[in-house]
Design goal:
- There is one protein chain.
- The chain contains four helices and no strands.
- It has one domain: 23S rRNA-intervening sequence (de novo design (two linked rop proteins)), CATH 1.20.1440.
- It is elongated.
- It is mainly α.
- Helices cover 73% and strands 0% of the residues.
Length: 124
């Protein structure tokens, strides 16, 4: 299995691409602030999942990387809220993207709580 096969990874990349597309419509004055921040945080989620999977031989590193990804996912939710409150995205888009982000968070937490299912050597 490769990290690209992980459901959490696939969902996080999909969310990242949706946010990339919607953020293209943000005002130009947001290019180096909100647009950059939301794109970076959402992309970091997928990267952290990939890194965690590669570190699965080291249980603490696996968990640490996934925790980083979960934190980046929470940051993405903050930027989505700002985009909504600034009226850059509709309430419908906000709720949809937030729900997908919450699903990614649940998948990450499942990985943290069930490391053995992902090839992490756990003590018996």
């Amino acid at each position: 299995m490769k990290f690209q096969d992980l459901f959490a990874y696939q969902k996080s990349v999909n969310l990242s691409m949706q946010i990339f597309e919607i953020s293209k419509k943000f005002p130009k004055e947001e290019t180096y602030s909100l647009t950059d921040q939301i794109r970076r945080s959402t992309r970091s989620v997928s990267a952290a999942i990939a890194e965690a999977y590669r570190k699965r031989a080291y249980p603490r590193h696996f968990s640490s990387k996934l925790t980083d990804g979960d934190a980046e996912n929470s940051e993405t939710q903050v930027w989505l809220e700002y985009a909504f409150r600034c009226e850059y995205i509709s309430e419908e888009d906000f709720e949809k993207l937030k729900m997908e982000s919450e699903e990614v968070g649940k998948l990450i937490n499942y990985m943290i709580l069930n490391p053995g299912e992902f090839g992490v050597k756990t003590e018996e």
